[in-house]
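Re: [help] complex structure
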Amino acid sequence: MFKSFIKKSRTKSPWLLHFDCGSCNGCDIEVLACLTPMYDIERFGIINVGNPMHADIMLVTGTVNHRNKKVLANLYEQMPHPKVVVAIGACGLSGGVFRDAYNVVGGVDKVIPVDVYVYGCPAKPEAIIDGVVMALGRFEEKAKALRTGT
Amino acid sequence: MNDYVLVAAGVLAGPVIGGLVSGADRIITARVQARVGPPLFQPFYDVAKLLGKEAVVVNVWQAFCAYAYLAASVMAVVLFFLRSDLLLIFFTQAVGALFLVGGALTSTSPYSQIGAHRELLQILSYEPLLVFVIVGIYLETHSFKIADILKWPEPLLLKLPFLFVVLGYALTIKLRKSPFDLSTCHHAHQELVKGLLTDYSGPFLALVEIAHWFDVVFLLCLCALFWATSWAGMAILLIVTYLLEIVIDNVTARLTWRWMLGYVWAMGLALSLVNLIWLYAAR
Amino acid sequence: MGKELLSTILILLPFVSAILIYLIRLSALRSLIVLVTGGVLIACSLLLIPYAPFTWSPHALLGIPLHGIVQVADFALLLIILYFGYKHRNLIIQVLSVLQIITMVYLEFFMVKGPISTDISYCDNLSLMMVLVASIVGSLICFQAIPYMKAHEHHLHLEKSKQHQFFFVMILFLGAMNGVVLANDMTFFYFFFELTTLCSFLLIAHDATEIATKNAVRALWMNSLGGAAFAIAIVFIYYDLGHLDMQQVIRTGPVAGLYVFPVALLVFSAFTKSAQFPFQSWLLGAMVAPTPVSALLHSSTMVKVGVYFALRLAPAIQLNFLSQTVAVFGAFSFLAAAALAVGQSNGKKVLAYSTISNLGLIFACAGINTPEAITAGMLLIMFHAVVKALLFLCVGAIEQNIASRDIEDMRGLYAHMPLTALITVMGVIMMIMPPFGVLLSKWMAIEAAARNIYAIIMIGLGGAITVMYWARWAGSLMSDPYAGRQFLLKFAREKQAALTWFVLLGLCVGAGVMSVAVPWLYSFLVVPALGGAYVPPFTVRQGILESSFGSFPVVPLCIVAAFGFLISIWALKKAMRARTVAPYLSGIQTDDPGVFKGPMNQPVKAWARNYYLQTIFGEERLTTWVNLCAGVLLTLMVGGVL
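Output below.
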């Protein structure tokens, strides 16, 4: 019974870590807009914690470049399980318009496993919220994988 | 009443009352900020989620410290419900605060270290004030024992108004509200990542949060002593005080530890001195 | 074994052993003598317990009249001090010792006519407590000094060992301590009092470096100031009352007029002995001595003579202006020393200031002079002695290992000295947390001081400051990521002498056991010591100390604390199987936990330092003001009784 309460709580209290991996800040501004009274994601229990050790969801914006890919991997590793990653914006999918630049790795999934992609350049706040909610649905299988050790 | 019932009530009061107060706090804060705010039971969801996370540590002694903090805070509330000695309860609760700091100091991350030292400075700021409040209560009721204090015929607020304000300073610091939320804070806006709590995570963070609820319950009980003669009066006092805390939190910005130490000690000492002299002269 | 034999052994055996140690230069034999002497002292002090209270008047030692021996020894002692004053060209010592010689000559040859005291020795439970502390804690410290001094001399590359000198004075000092607390005749008390001064001087100067000699000379003149005050005081007392029997002097009680003035002088001498402000610099300077000296003389025993004396005199100054000023002065000392400790990063200086702080609190208890306060003072003497000795010995062991006594160098000590670090943390916990004895005494002191507005403000502030400087030290000792792996295996890797482990663990466990046993310590040791002058403030019921306005459930809290401790240890064991991550460094950490990738991809070590707040609490900043205030308070005290 307590376990089912924990299961329910995972979707009701997702804490975010927002990491900018070389973004133009367009998507970042949209993410922060979600925190404002206009969209107020705290209604869903979402808090933007700045600390990977407290976070469940990692929102990654920007193309990943060769300098910050290690940082991204580091932060992902520091997050306790179960965790999900949401890549936001066209840059996060594939590198966006910066795809061919010499320092761009091009896409978050080249460094860490991504669960949800939110497209857009920049992605709208409504789309970001949609993406986060979709990511919440992935928690259950992540938790099961943690328990069974897969 | 039977002692065991009181102990059980004390152990349950922390999560139930503390959690609900914390939830109400977030809703009211959100409304004041023109937002909607989370559901009332959000703190319980937060704690449950944290308990279900993988245990990750920086230093294994953090686990020890988190449990010790929880044990001490629970003990303080239980002792309060058993109507024991108020000064002893204060020292018991201080044990927990020190273990929290100790756990943060075991990590070498500068965020943890600075957060821990700021927490020590906060402790330095509010501990004398709590001692003065308790001494003031003693001078009025002639006893440190809560059993005797509860029997006092008139509300303590009448004779100890300034000491209640002093208690308000301690409450603001303990509740981690602006302008004293230097070491860590309940919402994301923190210049030291999460300060003191940076390297606590998962189940240990959950325990720290539950222990914090017990601390809140202890402080609210201490405030309640100031109008212990009627339930209605107690409720009004607690609600007004807590609402005032929320307003102060939203109206002020975080300031430096130097200002905190200087201001809290100066105002706290001055107000305590005046009230204590009144009590002393009245004997 | 009669009480006379036990008392004789407690005072004289150390003298004999000291002489043997000085003459026999074989280290193994010397260690044996130290161990045997210590063991006998411990046994005798425990065997003395059922006899207290008692009085005893030996008239002769080996056929020679005792008064004569003490007179001659006294003058010899003063001449030795004068010689050292001359040797180190210190005018103050010379003046003070000449003054004392003249005073004692005047007293002994021109004033005294007939017997000066009914009982030479009086042992009530307060004396008994001091005997137990000096003999047990003192002997344990001497035991630990054996491996310590061996390593110490090895580090200094000394060709000729000076250990015979060292142990001669250390063991002699134990006898002097027992003599002080068992003495009832004030000339005897004075003799042993000055003997402890001399021992302190010799031990501080032991290493014979320039700074050691300078600090030893400072200690000598400040303590001689106390001795001179004492000598003048007993002249006045003999003039007033015609005898020098301490118990009768106290029982005569507060009589207005000239009588209170000598008592004020006696209290002043207690202040100098206990290194209260403005005389604290001798204790801080004494920290250059080898650590067993700091543990024995300058925290557990010698400085306790001052507070013991104050508690002894407390019934005589009840309801007096003197009592009030002592309370305020003690509370001020408590606050000021705590504040000064915050600004210190030198470990031994922190311990020294903490000692001065706690002694100030005991003086405040003596000054507040209610039954709760006196109880608090007595309990604090016992508990503080044990825990502070433990902490000093830990710092000594740490210092020998890392060649530094700075707290910043002890950061993360848990990584290479796990057991010592844990014992030190345990010591700190026993200093500042309930249900342990030191906090219990502080709780009692605050409850007792609540009616005195000056005292309570200062004690409240001081208490909070105390917590701060201890917590940051304990925390930084454990400040090591990835610590705790291979729990017990790590402990086995730390190497210390067997005697060191025995003493450290013994003191640690002893303090814990004493804390649980407080209700029984109170009933059997403290209540009889309160005597007729004070009504016992607490009733003991099921291990709970209950008074009319406060209660402290000692045994229930200890049980809960033990339970909580076991749960936390279980949590610790579980956490050892948890995943470890590096401390948070914004994601740019390297594989080395404390290092991050800085500019140009170069590794940078992340470091943090404790807050020492030196702009507010720094020694240079505060000392002048504190000394000024202390001077004002002292003038108030002594002048007020004239």
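Helices of chain A lie at 2-12, 26-35, 69-78, 89-94, 125-136, 139-148.
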